[in-house]
């Protein structure tokens, strides 16, 4: 039986600019969800490539933060992105989770894509804090304060927004269900005071579809790209 599944809906956007990817290397498995900023062919194509790249890198690093840091820094070093007078290049919010033998679950993010875990006891815990102006200034949740494709350092972002460009956390491994979600998937449910855990039932694919589909339905005419990736995690053996 598959241990993970993803599902996405385009909503009322012109392009599907969310993307998911998984990658396994030497027993380490990376799960990635990226939410492209904007809606165009260029954003869609860049986000898909960046998501696959991030999954490969994080799996090889066997650590979510190290993987996201490497890819973030590589994009930031692009001379075209360093030119403040150049046209804006594609960017995306990103969340990464990595399991590896004998290690805790690691999660890293930039932007407002989220990671949750549902424990066997039925407790849903959010592992990420949004990088957006609502969190920082109580302003708009639609303006992010960090993203993949940006050039600012941790220090520069922290000086202005109070959080680094990349944040991370670890969690002791136990059998649990992981959910990665774009804002188009979690916001409509959260706004409707719905317990997301209620939709994380059945197979991972069924659960991912539930989250995205019900989010899309609750959002109505203003629905965004809605994407969910669900994975059943088991305690990894010591390598």
UniProtKB/TrEMBL annotation:
Gene3D superfamilies cross-referenced by the UniProt entry: PPM-type phosphatase domain
SUPFAM superfamilies: PP2C-like
Enzyme class: hydrolase
Tree of life domain: Bacteria
One GO molecular-function entry: protein serine/threonine phosphatase activity
UniProt xrefs under Pfam families: PP2C_2
InterPro entries registered for this protein in UniProt: PPM-type-like_dom_sf, PPM-type_phosphatase-like_dom
Keyword terms: Hydrolase
Protein name: Serine/threonine protein phosphatase PrpC
SMART domains, alphabetized: PP2Cc (SM00332)
Residues annotated as transmembrane: none
Domain PPM-type phosphatase, chain residue ranges per copy: 3-233
Organism: Streptomyces pseudovenezuelae
E.C. designation(s): 3.1.3.16
